[in-house]
Amino acid sequence: MGAAQRPAEPAGTEWPARLHVVTGKGGTGKTSVAAALALALAAGGRRTLLVEVEGRQGIAQLFDADPFPYAEQHLTDAADGGEVRALAVDAEEALLEYLDMFYKLGGAGRALRKLGAIDFATTIAPGLRDVLLTGKVKEATTRTLGQRRAYDAVVLDAPPTGRIARFLNVTAETARLARVGPIKTQSEGVAALLRSPMTAVHVVTLLEEMPVQETVDAITDFTSLGFPVGRIIVNAARPPAPVGSTVTAAELTAGLLAAGLPADDETVSGLATEARDQSVRRELEDSLRTDLAELGLPLVELPLLPDGVDRAGLDRLAAALVRAA
């Protein structure tokens, strides 16, 4: 699909950023949410890029695809003619690209890889790895084709909340330490993009105590470091508990008998215990929902997918994100 055929603006006035950084505690489904967001932002004939930087090939696994090379490639079509492309950023390949771009090393850079110099460099200077990864994301976000951006939006499946602040801030630290040269220039450019209105950092959580606490901590860090926080995305959410939802033993007995099922004391007692446990759980979820709302940020709730995260499930999540715009 040619660039001239795509709309000029990203989908949804409430998703105005061009770079969407998606983080969350491990196990909250941030990769699935990042993929669904890429689908949502591509709807209507737009083109988005879904990027991962952790070397897990999580996107390929999610879409049941072969591992991605270090190259942008078609991942899937989105609603109404949109396209999602994918990129798995590799630090070593990004360094080779960097050496060729700024120092014209080309084949010499590949020779350095054979000697192990690139692995050595990224090991003794761990921050360099993150500078290279975020630098590639910045390049894709700001790349132009003629008079247009190459992508209407870029979605980054970022490291989890425990590491995200350091990952995003490493370019600012590198820019401060590097006095001159391409590394300083690139680091300053990335740091500026990540703190600009072009970027939004979204945090994925579950209505569980540890993920919610990590969400609160991460948002505090983002605010202190100057990163623009987008939305809190509650994944696998159930609706708030209805008022007066407590079930009595008599009601359970009547319900079982009406359904033609055994209503002996053991069965009723077991169901009553389960009902109490569920009630306590729903009360906790409602309390955590209130804690998140008190942060004063836009809150999006995505439904629990009983059948797991397949393509139909991703489309359902994408539709919910579109409605949230």
Commentary on this structure:
- With about 325 residues, the chain is of the alpha/beta class.
- The chain has one domain (about 5-240, about 295-325): Rossmann fold (3-Layer(aba) Sandwich), CATH 3.40.50.
- Helix content is about 50%, strand content about 15%.
- It contains 12 helices and 10 strands.
- It has helices spanning about 30-40, 60, 90-105, 105-115, 115-125, 125-140, 160-175, 180-195, 210-225, 250-260, 265-295, 310-325, and strands at about 20-25, 45-50, 75, 85-90, 145, 150, 155, 200-205, 230-235, 300-305.
- The strands form 2 sheets. Strands 3-4-2-7-1-8-9-10 form an 8-stranded mixed sheet, sandwiched between helices. A two-stranded antiparallel sheet has the order 5-6.
- Helix 7 crosses helix 8.
- Mean pLDDT is about 85; it is low at about 1-15.
Brief descriptors of the model:
alpha/beta, eight-stranded mixed beta sheet, 325 residues, Rossmann fold, elongated
Topology:
Blueprint: E1 19-24, H1 30-42, E2 47-52, H2 58-62, E3 73-77, E4 83-88, H3 91-103, H4 107-114, H5 117-124, H6 126-142, E5 144-145, E6 148-149, E7 153-157, H7 161-177, H8 182-194, E8 199-205, H9 209-225, E9 229-237, H10 249-258, H11 265-293, E10 299-303, H12 311-324
Parallel strand pairs: 1-7, 1-8, 2-4, 2-7, 8-9, 9-10
Antiparallel strand pairs: 3-4, 5-6
Helix pairs in contact: 1-12, 3-6, 5-6, 6-7, 6-8, 7-8, 7-9
GO molecular function: ATP binding; ATP hydrolysis activity
InterPro entries: ArsA/GET3_ATPase-like (IPR025723), ATPase_ArsA/GET3 (IPR016300), P-loop_NTPase (IPR027417)
Organism: Salinispora tropica (strain ATCC BAA-916 / DSM 44818 / JCM 13857 / NBRC 105044 / CNB-440)
